[in-house]
Amino acid sequence: MSSSELKAKTVKERAGQALNNDFLRNAVKFTTERLRLGKKLASEEHGNWDVWRERGRQIRLHTIAHLDYYLNEFAEQARANGAHVHFAETAEEAVAISLQITEHKSAKSVVKSKSMVSEELHLNKALDSIGVEAVETDLGEYIIQLADETPSHIIIPAIHKNRYQIAELLSAEAGETLPPDTTILAGFVRMKLREKFLEADIGMTGCNFAIAETGSMVLFENEGNARMVTTVPKTQITLMGMERIIPSWADLEVMATLLPRSATGQKLTVYMSGISGPKREADADGPDEMHIIIIDNGRSLQLGDPEFQELLNCIRCGACLNACPVYRHIGGHAYGGTYSGPIGAVLTPALNKNVAEWDDIANASSLCGACYEACPVKIPLHDMLVSLRRRKIEAGRGDKLEAMGMKGFAAVMGNAKRYRSAIKLGKWGQKLVVRGGEIRTRIGPLKGWNSYRVTPSLPKQSFRDRWPEVAQEIHSTSGPMNPEIAARLKERLLAAEFRKGEKAYDKRN
Amino acid sequence: MTSETDHNWLNRLEEQSRLKQEQFMDGIAAKLGRDRIRTAPEHPFRGAPDFWKEFEWPLEQRITQFTANFEAAGGHVVRLSNREAVSQFIRDKAVEMSAATILRQQEEALSCLRLEESLLEAQVLSWNDEADTDWRAVAARADFGIVMADYATAYTGSIVVKSAPNKGRSVSLLPTVLVAVIPVDRMVTRLGEILVQFDQAGREQLPAGIHFISGPSRSADIENDLTIGVHGPGIVYALLVDSYEN
Ligand code: SF4
């Protein structure tokens, strides 16, 4: 294809200035900093933030503890609204149901609004395989779809692209050269996607919350594309993780207070939509047919697991990513799963029920506790990271070096004086992170997110080289670890018995 | 696909789904280590913290706060005294912006503005007032969409619109400019004041679409640069009206 040739050539020309490590790191840093600050201001302005967090946590805990009741109730009420509800245990099942609907409707195109679940399923590929065009309509998602990449941030998926790269991509799509001007680029996308919305047979969305008592689903967004997708096409499919439930609209007030503030620092996203079934008989818009696919795909594995059940409380706000000094340095694609950052480091192995597959990147957490502090529903992500490490070692999959990492960690934790030193904090973190001088997998700054494969000039940089910077940032942005967290982690470590840890930690500590 | 009718196909899917549903719920209960729960559990933490439920601003402050929030999000707020002023404002704006097509909800509260007669420069249409029209397509080419707000919330600066046969979801979404008329007595302080009404009304009373709109459509996806009007209306007017009734 000549356009892709053109694309490759021009991008190559720009590779020197744009596709470099510094840009990615600076972009991620800048964006996460902006979001983090926004969240801080918004939560402070709102006031009583911890009271709200605690309320959010309680609602999520209560819902998950009674999930069979609430999920069942949701399904019944959604059916009463006229929606068709489906259950999928695995990603494959969810894909099969989606394809069946698509085929039955003889659909040629599907317009989608942002959905992490859809990323989990690799649905676009599946649709493509049966000749159905899947169009991502969220501006950032559309950009990375054109680039044939995956999102690098839950909230800002194209965080790693600059405006020149975006102009290249959109120019190829437009068949003319578009200037790297944000307004013009967005204007082009608006026009282009308008056509897609009006033509599409099926609209597909994720679901932020599902209200059990009325069978309604709730979407938060700023652009309006989720509204488009649920308003214009004749058939609508909602992909929903089985844990998205809240009991009532009253509970939605708490989630609506926590989610936008934590995600972007907004008091509310521009649109919050509650959708209860397909269009009513006499309505002149909205879908004629609505399908809701409720997906497990590893989620239920966390149920009844005292260490990980709280993962299901996650409302996918991205605040832990923005708070994480490691994420700020390496960006989302280094995590190698659908979900990145601290939540991704725990969720990816948890959903895959496979601690062995647990990537080294999960080690790249400093355990500084910033993710917990940021989390609007108080998920103890650092506790979970420690548990994961312990389980890996217990399963005989940790090697000596990692055991040493644990030892280093235990040693520091066991000594309050040493712990107080930020430099030491960096040091034990380094022990945890580094294996053989660098993190081996997916840490090459461009691997996994660069589809052009024309980056010979990139310096290979080991994580160790960057660690001092990370450590510095942990120190300057997170401050010392919350003593409460430190105490809990220590307790956990002491309680742990390493069957194959090669004296993983010294009892004297 | 095959000759199977939609109806049969959907029935077959529902049968499968119901079977699967039981397995799902049984599986969840088993993992949680107890029997299935079949009646609504006591929910001690329902809704916002108690102190919040009592929080309420007086009307003038609600209006000030709404205005500040809505403007901070990039929207425009205009306070008008009555219906005539609303009619005048919309006419002037439409002329100023050379609007060619104006689509309004089919509501008495809007038809009494008599835009059809007084605004000869533009074509004024009323949502779903005749069958056999593709109203979504009409909305997509409209320059102005005009809606009555069902409610507004001051604390978040949001307009709330509910769908109905005579009130299209597209009217507040597809046109380039959105004009929302908000009689001030529909303005409350908190989101929760509105949300609990949906609980109280119950499922049967809910419309297909309930939308909270807190400014113009926006995105910061390109280099964090704020872009307005990505998919939804880029220009939004909230017209706060002191006494809308005659
Ligand atoms: S773990 Fe907490 S902070 Fe991270 S995305 Fe989930 S809810 Fe947000």
Question: Which properties best describe this structure?
Answer:
heterodimer, A: 509 residues, alpha/beta, Fumarate Reductase Iron-sulfur Protein, Chain B, domain 2, Rossmann fold, 2 domains, 6-stranded parallel sheet, 4-stranded mixed sheet, 22 helices, 10 strands, 51% helix, disordered N terminus, disordered C terminus, B: 246 residues, 8 helices, 12 strands, 34% helix, 22% strand, globular, binds iron/sulfur cluster, Amino acid dehydrogenase (chain A), electron transport (chain A)
Brief overview:
With 509 residues, chain A is α/β, with parallel strands linked by helices. Chain A is built from 22 helices and ten strands. The N terminus and C terminus of chain A are likely disordered.
Q: Could you give the topology of this structure?
A:
The complex is a heterodimer of chains A (509) and B (246).
Chain A: H1 2-15, H2 21-46, H3 49-65, H4 67-80, E1 84-88, H5 91-104, E2 109-112, H6 116-121, H7 123-129, E3 133-136, H8 139-146, H9 163-174, H10 182-199, E4 202-205, E5 209-211, E6 216-221, H11 225-231, E7 235-241, E8 245-246, H12 249-264, E9 271-275, E10 289-295, H13 319-323, H14 325-330, H15 341-351, H16 370-374, H17 381-394, H18 400-413, H19 416-420, H20 422-433, H21 463-478, H22 483-495
Chain B: H1 6-31, H2 50-53, H3 59-72, E1 76-82, H4 83-96, E2 101-104, H5 108-111, H6 115-118, E3 123-126, H7 135-141, E4 144-148, E5 151-153, E6 158-162, E7 177-183, E8 187-188, H8 191-201, E9 209-213, E10 218-219, E11 227-228, E12 235-243
Parallel strand pairs in B: 1-12, 2-3, 2-4, 4-7, 5-8, 7-12
Antiparallel strand pairs in B: 5-6, 6-9, 10-11
